[in-house]
Amino acid sequence: MTDVDLSVDLAGLTLATPILTASGTFGYGEEFADFVDFAKLGAITVKGTTLKPRLGNEGIRIAETPSGMLNAIGLQNPGVEYFLQTILPRIRELPTNIIVNISGASSEEYGELAAILDKADGVAAIELNVSCPNVKDGGMIFGTDEQALTEVTKAAKRQTNKPVIVKLSPNVTNIVDMAKAAEQAGADALSLINTLLGMDIDVERRRPLLGNITGGLSGRAVLPVALRMVYEVSRAVQIPVIGMGGAATWQDAVKFLLAGARAVAVGTANFTDPTTTMKIVAGLREYMEQNSFSHIADIKMT
Amino acid sequence: MSAGVTTLPKRVVTEAEVITQRQMARDVYFMTVAAPQIAADALPGNFVMVQTGDGEAHLLRRPLGIADADLAKGTISFIYKVIGAGTKKLTALKNGEVLSILGALGNSFSFSFNKPLLVGGGIGLAPLLYFAKCAEGADVVMGGRTAADMFWTRLFKPYVQNMFVATDDGTMGTPGFAVDLLPSLLQTGEYDGMLAVGPTVMMQKAARIAAKFDVPCQVSLENRMGCGLGACLSCCVKTVDGMPKKVCTDGPVFWAREVWA
Prior knowledge:
The complex is a heterodimer.
Chain A: E1 8-10, E2 13-15, E3 19-21, E4 43-49, E5 62-65, E6 68-71, H1 80-91, E7 97-102, H2 107-118, E8 125-129, H3 146-159, E9 164-167, H4 175-184, E10 189-192, E11 196-199, E12 201-202, E13 207-208, E14 214-218, H5 223-236, E15 241-244, H6 250-259, E16 263-266, H7 269-272, H8 276-290
Parallel strand pairs in A: 3-4, 3-16, 4-7, 7-8, 8-9, 9-10, 10-15, 15-16
Antiparallel strand pairs in A: 1-2, 5-6, 6-14, 11-14, 12-13
Chain B: E1 12-25, E2 28-34, H1 36-41, E3 47-50, E4 62-65, E5 68-70, E6 75-81, H2 85-91, E7 98-105, E8 116-121, H3 125-135, E9 138-144, H4 152-156, E10 160-167, E11 174-175, H5 182-187, E12 193-197, H6 200-212, E13 217-220, E14 236-238, E15 244-246, E16 253-255, H7 256-259
Parallel strand pairs in B: 8-9, 8-12, 9-10, 10-11, 12-13
Antiparallel strand pairs in B: 1-2, 1-7, 2-6, 3-4, 3-7, 5-6, 13-16, 14-15
């Protein structure tokens, strides 16, 4: 039997496995303590964090769609200070890497958040959320304009020596241009895709279903879009890519790796089954054993 | 303020075999499944998230309140109403088929009252049934549309002292709403607590009446949920202090004065 090594390097971080969790779908990790062995996760990415606490959006925040779901949470979070003082001490010792996803209303705010987190012991990397479709002040605007994306990435990079991951929006004409802009601005890695902008309509009330009118589409339905974008971006940049969008099985994870991703984040599937990440890790290991792959890098297109 | 909240139960995902499923009324079903680990931990007020199908077409689980748990038999029961495509699929499950259940979730009702008055409207009576069984000697006020929907009286009878019934069309009990019966019952001073579960408007009215008589009142909230674990923040509700609370892990049971001014 082949000795299988699932570890990967991501911008200087050693990940025990290439399986991560996507921001906003895994809380702060502790919510899933009954269901996962954190040592088998390459990293957990915590809920989007802002400088000040945010209460999130009013009204209905979630809707199931065919093989998918829409969310419009609106970046509800207790703010970076509360995260550092109260939450991080509880999760710091988990045997995995902690990536903090940050969101700001200006490039200065991204810089400020990066500076604060740079000093935080236990934070392995910072992910820039430049693609949240559910807030009016900022969010997706930074991820859909090359100039703004460049500024935000540089602002964060100037303030931290920790790896900066830029999370790209699929709601653009050409995601490769955005990926190249982030790389040139100094991003250490890219993660894609964030949710696709969508909506649902209540036929009885005859009005938009979500309180925010539009929301972000995720889940199985977006997997082919995510694979295509990861495939294109991986070929256009030198920095590693974290693939995400609809991954729910080990086969999906292998597809992302074959498309060129260094690691794969699981999002919505954590809701369907909180043990999904563990099943994917087990399946991935078995796939490698059966194919006599000793390293993740051996998984590549023929 | 203490919410009479217990520590959250240990949660598991389990493939539960359907033991029985029967229709109780139009759109209302009673299902019992084998889930020994959940049955061992489940407290009145807890809920589970059930998968409707294989998790492909319907990605999200549906929250169902626990209507009964039998530790000896290792079973839990739900009484649920068909609301959409997901719950419709549940009705097709036959004995011996399995469904994936995540639970037990959420907090539970307070057992600190000497003589609680249970107030339930429609399907809201389901979690109160399990409370009535565990508490013994409670009184219950139940409301429904019409006599054909009031199978609840049969279910509650073995566990409660007094039952008071109101139906919208007057075909059973007092014509009108369950909450209309509350002032005269609370007037007696017999009850030192109230647990109200049902439509939001009903719970708000019940809570206002309870407050007038200085009787502490707990309610159980419902909302659309993603994870049931406190991670996705889909089910948050605003509370009187302006801060959002998660129905799934801060609730579903809340003191009425926590959530409504």
